[in-house]
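Budget justification note: compute hours in this period were largely spent on complex prediction jobs such as the one shown. Inputs:
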Amino acid sequence: MSNPATKKPMPLVALSIAFIVIWLMIAAFPFLWTMWGSFKVEGDFFSRADWMNAITGPATQLQTGGRFTLEGYYGAWVEQAFWRNALNTLIVVVFTVLISLTLGTLGGYALARSGFKYTFWILMAALVFRAMPHVTLVSGYLLPFFELNIWGHLTTTIVVLVAINQPFTLWMLHSFFLSIPKDLDEAAMVDGCTRFQAFRLAVIPVMWPGVITTGLFSFLLAYNDFTVTAMLLSEENTTMVPQIDSFLGSTQEKGKVMYAVAAVVSAILPLFLLILFFQRQIVSGLTAGAVKG
Amino acid sequence: MSRLQLKNVSKRWGSFVGVDNFDLDIADQEFLVLLGPSGCGKSTTMRMIAGLESVTEGEIWLGEKMVNKLDPKDRDISMVFQSYGLYPNLTVYENIRFPLRVRKVPKEQHREMVMKAIEMVELEEFMDRRPAELSGGQRQRVALGRAIVRKPTVFLMDEPLSNLDAKLRVSTRAQIKNLQSKLKVTTVYVTHDQIEAMTLAERVVVMNSGRIQQVGTPTDIYNDPANTFVASFIGSPAMNLVEGKLQDGLFKGPGIRVEGLPKHASGNVTLGFRAEDAEIVPSGGQIAAPMYSIELLGEASMITWRIGAGLVSVKTNKDYRAEIGDVVEARIPAEICHLFDTASGERIKT
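Corresponding output:
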C-alpha cells in the first residue's frame, strides 16, 4: 500500500469510492424498499396519498398499533400455506440441480476428452436449444403431458427443467474439463484406475469449483423459473414464483398484495445465504500451477 | 522376465500414419531411449505401450503376455509425464501413495513403501506440501516417486526433463540414470534431446516420420549413422553433410575435394564428417574457402564455411584467430568420411 508507484491520487480515490457507494445504493434500493415495506400494511406500502407513507407507516400504526407488522408474512406463510410452495421449490430445485450436474459432469467430461469432430456439433445443437425461449418448448409439451396424464406433477417439471438446463451445464462443464490437462486422467489410469475411477478420484476433486459454479447457475434457473412452473404445475403443486404471481394477481382482495411482498422477501433470503456460503468455491483456480510447471 | 516386445506395431488415424511397422525387442532391465524430432511417432509408440493409445496393427508383448487389449491399469507399468500429471488436491505423500491406494495394496505397507520412494527422490522435507507449492524440479521428482513406489515391470518416461531449466535437467538426468540402475527395471524413455539420449541410453532408437531409422548403442549411432537423417540429428554440432559427385575414389563438391575414398561407389553422393574429426591446416587442405564465421565455444573454436547450399563446421583449438572472409583450409582425411547415397540418404557401406 505504501508503494508510491501504486498510490493513486486522492481525488481519484474519492471519486471511485463515491461512485461505488452511489452504485450500491441504486442497486440495493429496490431490495431494501421491498424489505422495509413488507413489514407495513397495504395502505402504506401502496399509498395513493403520499409515497412517504411507505416509510413512516401511519396506516400500519392505525391498523395494528405498532410501527411494524408481520401480517403479510403471517398471511402468506400460514393462511395461504406458502410453506408448501417453498417445499415444492426445494424439491424441484434440489432434484434439478442434482440431475443436471450428474448428467452434465459425465457428458461434459466425455465431450471434453473425446477426439471426435461430432463433439462440436453436439455442443452447437446444445447452444441452439439453450437459446430457444422456454415457452416454445413448454407449449409443445402441454398436449402430450395432458394425454399422458403426467401434467401437474413435480416430477414432470423437474424433467423439463433438467432438459432446458442441460445444454448450459454441458457447455459450462465441458469448458471446465477442457482446462484440466489430459495428463491428469492418463496418470491416474496408468497408476491403476479404470476410466471411471480416474474421473472420480483424479478429475472430480480438481473440478469442484467448476461443479459448484455450474450447480449454482442451474439452481438459479430452477429457482427463478416462471414459464415452466406456471404452465406445468397444478394449483396444489405450484412453486414459490408462480404463487407470488398469483398473490399479485388478486389485487381486488385487500391485503393479499402484501402477501406477495412478504413472500418475495422470503424468497430472496436463501439466495443471499447460498452465494455467501459458496463464494469461495466459486472462485476457481485450484489447478493453477499444479499440473504444469 | 519383463522383456518388452513390439512386433510390427503400427498406428494409423485414417490415412495418417503415426507409427509405421515398429519392430523391436527390449531386453529385461534395459534402458532404451526413443529419440526423434517432434511428430516422429516416439510418444505415440510409448503411449501404445502404456495402453493410452490403441494399436492399429501388430502386437505388444510384456513378458509372456500379449497386452494389446489390456487397459493401462492391467499392464503393470508406470509412467512419468512431461507435464507431471500430479494430483493438485493431494499432498506429495498422498500423490505418491495414490497408485498403492487404487491398486489395493494392503494399507499397513503403504507408509513404508511411500517413505522409501520419497527417500529415493529426496523429497522428505516436502512430504506435506501440495504440488502447487513445489518448484518444477521437485514436481518432477514427485512424479518419479509415484512411478517407483511400486515395482512395475516397465517404466515409461515421456520427455520428463523438457519442462525443467538447463541446469536442473543435468542433475535430474543423473538422478534418473542412478535410480534406474538401482531399481533394475526395464525403462523406455522418450526424448527429442540427443544429449539426453546419448547420456542415458543403453540403446537408442532414432525415429523419423513414424519409422525407425536406426537402433544401436549411443556409440554406434554416433560413429556409424545409418543414413543422413541420423547423421544430421545426432551430435552437437551435427555431422557436416556436403553433396557432390564421387568417381574413382575422388569426391568433388563446391569448394571441397577428398581423395582416397572407396572406389566401388560412384555418382551423386553426400559426404559426411564430424567437426571434431577434421582439423584446420595452414595449407594443402581438402577444403579451402573463405571463412563464414568463427565462434568460441569455450574449450574450442568452431570455424564455419559456406559450402554449396549448407554450412560446414570444423573444430579447432580455442586460440585460433582468423578474420571472417579469410581463406581457411581444413584437412579432411578419407578415414573420417562417411558416404551416403544422395537420392535415398542411405549410408554407402565401405
